[in-house]
Design a protein that fits this description.
By secondary structure, this protein is an alpha+beta fold. 31% of the residues lie in helices and 28% in strands. It folds into four domains: 7-96, Rossmann fold (3-Layer(aba) Sandwich), CATH 3.40.50.20; 124-191, ATP-grasp fold, A domain (Dna Ligase, domain 1, 2-Layer Sandwich); 196-318, ATP-grasp fold, B domain (D-amino Acid Aminotransferase, Chain A, domain 1, 2-Layer Sandwich); 332-426, Glycinamide Ribonucleotide Synthetase, Chain A, domain 4, CATH 3.90.600.10. It has 14 helices and 23 strands. Bound molecules: adenosine monophosphate and glycine (GLY).
């Protein structure tokens, strides 16, 4: 196949997928980008379908019917459900790991054992599927202690417990299957790590990879990083927290042993490896792996890439070596998430969104929890939109992003006004 006029199908419906679709569409290799199931903004811009992300058979038939050259899988659930395996079985190229590779996100217990086996730095831990040994392990822990549901829990399965009583209750609740169902049938009890968190995204093809600029997410709902955890309220890249020298060290201590370990386990890992790192006093430690691009990190990482994204995705999907060097723009990017009041708890839906009539230079509005209703775009999720700004400095990127934030309206609009505060306090 000659790589031209390609048809790409993006799987998913969030801000990450809107960004992936937009960035793929810029590639000279691409003729058409389609998305399923999309959202209110994606469906205006790209041909979309109604097949859901958990319908492997539906996606395979759609990809065959539409003669898709490359499927780009956005979220973790279809990756863990073996979508890439099913597409490969009918000869369709897909970007993302197979089900074996996706275990790095699908099972925190598997990942902790994997990290221990290959001596990759991470928090001290124990894995448990029975209450009694878990409670016994807790007796030897110093609070605060972290209790995690091993399986997928959409970012909600991590409890930071201030005392052992809270930790015991969390363990019992998870293992009973009450709050997290199957995902909580195994738990990881972990040492609490202190430090700043950064996200390292790699596009991998086995042991070969390219590293994307380091980004920082803002997980807490409130200003100054207060309140409940969310999927992410904003992000920026690159961060000055990680110097090129530090990155080189993380590559030696974390990235290379991880990819070599996967190979030793018989996993040919292709796709995104997102490494959540905690920069502690004793060096960087792995908090978690995700096997897909971060959301909202994608919104700030991909616009900084100077190389053709689709070329990289193709190499990864085909298992070809990644290029030795990729170029990034000498710019910064920031995304401010526009959420609905109440998120991450209950929030209203169906509010009409008004977007700016004239585009704002160096700013792009990314859709997440939106849908079309009677010819209008309305809110349909907790994280509604992402206002992305780019510029020669992070300050410039921030100004563009917040200009766009101010130009969008819907009744329950909520956002943090301090995205990037850690970076600004450093520089
Ligand atoms: P995870 O999904 O495992 O990354 O956990 C979600 C969030 O919980 C992380 O982004 C951290 O902010 C926090 N977290 C997880 N594990 C720890 C830990 N061992 N120590 C401190 N914070 C943690
Ligand atoms: N922003 C965090 C994540 O995508 O997991």
């Amino acid at each position: 196949m000659k790589d031209e006029n390609m048809k790409i199908l993006v799987i998913g419906s969030g801000g990450r997928e809107h960004t992936l679709a937009k960035e793929c569409a810029k590639s000279p290799l691409v003729g058409q980008v389609m998305v399923t199931p999309g959202n209110g903004g994606i469906n205006r811009e790209f041909t979309s379908f109604a097949v859901g992300v958990e319908d492997n058979r539906g996606i395979v038939s759609l990809a065959l019917d539409e003669n898709i050259d490359l499927v780009v899988v956005g979220p973790e659930v279809p990756l863990c459900n073996g979508l890439v395996d099913d597409l490969k079985a009918v000869g369709i190229l897909a970007y993302g790991p197979d089900a074996a590779g996706a275990q790095l996100e699908g099972s925190k217990a598997y990942t902790k054992d994997f990290l221990a086996k290959y001596s990759v730095p991470t928090a001290a831990y124990g894995n448990f599927s029975e209450v009694a040994p878990a409670l016994q392990y807790l007796e030897g822990c110093q609070p605060p202690v972290v209790v995690k549901a091993s399986g997928l829990a959409a970012g909600k399965g991590v409890l930071i417990c201030e005392n052992l009583q809270e930790a015991r209750a969390a363990v019992e609740d998870m293992l009973s299957g009450e709050s997290f169902g199957e995902s909580g049938k195994e738990v990881v009890i972990e040492e609490f790590l202190e430090g700043e968190e950064v996200s390292l995204h790699l596009i991998c093809s086995g042991e070969s990879y390219v590293a994307m600029p380091m980004s920082q997410d803002h997980k807490k709902v409130g200003e100054g990083d207060a309140g409940l955890n969310t999927g992410g309220m904003g992000a920026y890249a690159p961060t000055s927290l990680v110097t090129p020298g530090m990155l080189a060290r993380y590559e030696e201590e974390i990235v290379k042993p991880t990819l070599a370990g996967l190979k030793a386990e018989g996993v040919d890992f292709r796709g995104t490896l997102y490494i959540g790192l905690m920069l502690t006093e004793n060096g960087a430690k792995v908090l978690e792996f995700n096997v897909r691009f971060g959301d909202p990190e994608t919104q700030v990482i991909l616009p900084l890439l100077a190389n053709d994204l689709v070329e990289l995705l193709l190499k990864s999907a085909r298992g070809e070596p990644m290029p030795d060097q990729v170029a990034f723009k000498d710019e910064s990017a920031m995304v401010v998430v526009l959420a609905s009041h109440g998120y991450p708890g209950a929030y209203p839906k169906g509010e009409v969104i008004t977007e700016p009539e004239t585009p704002i230079a160096d700013a792009v509005l990314i859709h997440a929890g939106t849908r079309e209703k009677d010819g209008k775009v309305v809110t349909a999720g907790g994280r509604v939109l992402g206002a992305v700004g780019t510029g020669a400095s992070l300050t410039a990127a921030r100004d563009r992003a917040y200009e766009l934030v101010e130009a969008v309206s819907y009744e329950s609009k909520y956002f943090r006004s301090d995205i990037g505060h850690r970076e600004f306090s450093r520089t």
